[in-house]
Amino acid sequence: MTTHTTHTTTTDDLERLMALMTGDEKHSTAATSTLDALWVLYDRVLRVGPETVDEPGRDRFLLSKGHGPMAYYAVLAARGFVPEAWLPGFGSYDSPLGHHPDRTLIPGVEIGSGSLGHGLPLAVGTVLGLRAQGLTDPRVWVLIGDAELDEGSNHEALAYAGPAGLEQLHTLVIDNSSATHGWPGGIASRFEAAGWSAETVDGRDHEALYAAFTAPHPGRPRAVVARVEPKN
Question: The whole model's pTM is what?
């Protein structure tokens, strides 16, 4: 599958797109924390575009942190998956852009999400499903928040994926210091203890994110922990 060519969209453009989405939205911080990492993924890493959203060989991106989807919608609009004209209607009764993304309404959205702890288990199942079909080339990415690691479902998924050698699986953890329990040695060490390849980077540094996203990890799933400013 052909990868995207680099577009001229800038962070300023993304902030303008996000600003089109207004209303009573309590999860704006959850959205802004993901903006840079999402853009690097969609602009330079993911092998999927508006014209390939139904191809079996596409990469899959699963937004588990679905309770703050504004940055996701802005990036989808910037990449041409959805029209910019949809953004001002965000959250309204007849808008496809809800406060949680709906895979049946938005092109390119793989899962309906928002409830904490669902995305990583779904990503594990997606990789297993692809393998069962003989599709070993598509990569599966899931974006979770650090607070989601308080959920037992995520613990079970990451504990399974390492020993199973799910090399197609990539987990992006947005760490804004909102987890309740934490982990000795940091989040990356939690994944490493379960057999993952893991790295922690500055979640606002595009080049550091790109290098971490594209680092080789033969025979192991990959986790990238993107540190951003603490949640207020």
Answer: 0.91
- Beta-carbon neighbour count of residue 84 at 10 Å? 13
Which residues have a Cβ under 8 Å from the Cβ of 110 and sit 6 or more positions away? 60, 61, 62, 103, 126
Whether the Cβ atoms of residue 3 and residue 47 lie closer than 8 Å to each other:
yes
Q: What string of DSSP letters covers 2-55?
A: PPPPPP---HHHHHHHHHT--SS-TTHHHHHTTHHHHHHIIIII----TTSTT-
What averages of pLDDT result for each successive group of 10 residues across the chain (232 residues)?
48 86 62 91 97 96 90 95 95 92 95 88 98 97 93 94 98 89 86 97 97 98 95 70
